[in-house]
Amino acid sequence: MKNSIKQNLFRSLIRLSQSPISRIYRIFPWVITWHISSMCNLRCVYCTVPREDTHPDFKRALRKIIKLKPKLLVISGGEPLLVPNLEAIVQKIKREVDPYIIVNTNATLPRRVVPLLPYVDEFAISIDGLGEVNKRARGIDGDKIIECIQSTLDEIKAQGLETSITALCLVTNDNYTLIPSLVHRLHELSPHIRTNLLPMQPYTHPLSIASNPANYSEFVKIVTNLSNQGFRIRVTGPFCEKGAMKEVACYRQYFRGAVDKDGVFIPCKPYAYAAYFLHELGRAISERNPLMFMQILKQMIDSLILHRYDPVCPFPCNCDDYVDSILLCESVELLWREPRNLLSRLNLGEMKETYDFIAKHINPKFNPDLLNSNKLKGKESFTFIALPPIFCAQAPTVKNKMSIKKKDSNNEYK
After folding, report:
1. Lowest CB count within 10 Å: 41, 189, 311, 358, which one?
2. Which residues, including other chains, have CB under 8 Å from residue 8's CB and lie 6 or more apart?
3. CA-based angle 40:43:48, to the nearest 5?
4. Structure pTM?
């Protein structure tokens, strides 16, 4: 019964995202995350991806991605390396669209990485710690993942490629004190490996460091110290030095989306917003709270229709937050790897259209030089011209803050 309700809700959201209402939004599919499959060979203790025995429609999804022409494509799962003929799929995308391609992987299948190297620009490898630390969370010894990273680096060097490696570390109350040992070990493998630290969400989860102020404060000291030592680290998601942010100014919502395993394009707005508000409306109904229902309904109308370009997001995530650095940046020299590689793929028509939108709806002082691909192409696009800040989330300002009400620690509306 519950599954049928969820399926009906999902179909309703898909219809909404493809309805005339969604066409009032101007969406630039700069960054697309392709959830290529839910298959996985690990059982991470915190994973929420459903493991369904389905048969993804790869051909339909491939046609959709080629039609969208993303500038940066993230292939995620599940575990993408379990997908048959992934090499042919990636090769076709690279040939016809040429986006900057990132493959998210748990690095347990190094032999399947080798044939992908000529077509993939970056591998984002999940590792939560060395040895038993990673084994407790992901079911595989962290030292084995280190060996896989080393073998991948050796193969990259042997082929004379410039493929990048990024480590993705989910930070919890169990592993945050051991982050320095992981960062140092990765640096020994290669000083060019960057570590993205992802504090666990939701904040109320027992493993989340955001639920423990003392632990979070210590975590900030740890990452600040590592950054001061010159290590390439970044905290992704709605976090700042003081803790988790319950709402953020999210400008990237008009520049990103997802394609599911069956080829359905899911733009962040209105789809993700509609999903959030419908979930909250359902909660109000289950709690028999008419006042809460009316407040959420007002927010939904305000956000989706009346103020559709208001950037305030009440359900912040860690998806592609580097896009905001482009939209708010004032100098090409301040851009780091992902933004540079994304922008270098815009053509002249896209530059003009994009500049007009950004200047009108997001940043009137936007520097058009950022859209000059001639300044971004070449070898420098594969190096760190600038180091990203440790914390990238943007807090809403008084100017762009609309009527979304914050929730208190008990998740109730004030």
Report:
1. 41
2. none
3. 85
4. 0.85
